[in-house]
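Encode chain A's predicted structure.
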Amino acid sequence: MSTATLPQDSPKPAEPPVTGDAGVIAKLLPYLWEYRGRVLLAIAFLVTAKFANLAVPLLMKAIVDGLSAPKAVLAVPFALLAAYGLLRMSSTLFNELRDVVFVKVAQRAMRRVALQVFEHMHSLSLRFHLERQTGGLTRDIERGTRGISTLLNFMVFSVLPTFFEIALVTGFLIVRFDVWFGVITVGALLLYISATFLISERRIHHRRAMNESDSKANTRAIDSLINYETVKYFGNEAFEARRYDENLSRYESAVVTSETSLGLLNTVQAAIIAVTVSLLMWRAADGIVHGALTLGDLVMVNALLIQLYIPLNFLGVLYREIKQSLTDMEKMFRLLAVNREIEDKPGAPALAVAGGSIRFEGVDFAYDARRQILSGVDFEVPAGRTVAVVGASGSGKSTLGRLLFRFYDVQEGRILIDGQDIRDVTQLSVRTAIGIVPQDTVLFNDTIYYNIAYGRPQAKREEVEEAARVAHIFDFIESLPDKWETMVGERGLKLSGGEKQRVSIARTVLKDPPILIFDEATSALDSGTEKAIQAELAEISRNRTTLVIAHRLSTVVDADQILVMDAGRIVERGTFRELIAREGLFAEMWRLQQQEESEEDAVPATGKETS
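Encoded structure for chain A:
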């Protein structure tokens, strides 16, 4: 079995949670450092483009002064006009080269972080996944990875170039004209930036509210659609729509407030720019009147200011998007800081499977410290034998399977496979050695072939087909219009319960594990389908170590040993005949189930009992 892995030099997720903008940026830097050559080359293209941009107004001044001179020699303006076009072209060219060089950096960072988060999500315990809200979680990951591209593009392509150009233009105005040009420009920029940041900071609160409402609405929608049948059973379409609309209403309110504050921001920015341009144009015009400046200087100052303030117009948007990107990324990186409840020990070896014997030794376990689930559980499943576990709902039967798969670690005692504590070996090797046919088979929304082949993705087609034959589903698949390419639907809902169980059996057969777990694999099926599938389960479990977790006692009659659980403890154990003869809890459960089945058989389709 293979798993997707990051390159060996991939940054490892830090254990402490990421906090603040600085923490997020620090988290991102290792991904950029890998492509530092491209980053530096992109910055070099950026600087070159800005120098070319600054030269355009200077050339425009020379053209205007050349045309307004008394001699106005035609050759001079033609040469300058040609140079002007070349500079315009070079500015665009270097900007495009910057984009081409940097795009791989941004996309690779997105890819690596997304893969790392995806792998980390799969490494977290079952407890985390039982408590998560899938819709909101997927939105957090989606926004976080998209935020990486947004942050890098805006920082490298917008913020850094804008501030670099501000420094260039301000320095040039002071050197070329007088200090007042610089004072007016710098003063206006400080006022502009301060107003932008203050208003944008208030707007970020509304943007966060928008995202929270969006995530909650998405979670509600996905949860409702996944449970479509339940909604229909209880006629709660209007109830679900109201709950969904509550989040949409909050989102609408946050958007309206955000857009109103955007209008205020744009008005303040426009007012500052208008006053600044007017003051600088007045200084330039006054210089022309007194003969200190030329008409070309006036045109140059105007062109410089236009070049400067066009990107500044988007400063509020940039600030908001960058802050939002940092917030989204922090939320995503916080997922990476979620501790793995179950981790391999450093240097843990793979499980060495001989016969596949299982032993639980004095196992205590609780999902919550306030409610004990298992107490002093002690039993063995010899290699190649079948042991069944029965008991009332909530007695702790299914927890045994989860502990054996090491979805959780025991609080006391230990679980051994062929004499090896499963905490001392790798999780992957343990799970590779075990196959399960669960009560509720959940399939991927893909083809039947994909779902069977999932048991061993590298298997040949002939092996997949043979597994289907063993599970007695081959003929059914061949009878379908699309055969193996038939889509099974979300969670396999296009298939019946029996068909899904046979797909589950087929992929477990394909996996070919030495240890099998049947976790109430037939309890949700009708008696006819149950008998057919029980025969298939008996066939594939032959000569394998098998743990059967059952509700219907008739399915475990042939087990080598039966364990009876009550309130997290094994209260009886023995063969079927031994337990019946003992007249204990198992015998009582058997009588009750036999009585229930007899009553069901006595009720015809009319629903009236026969006399």
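The chain is about 60% helix and 10% strand.
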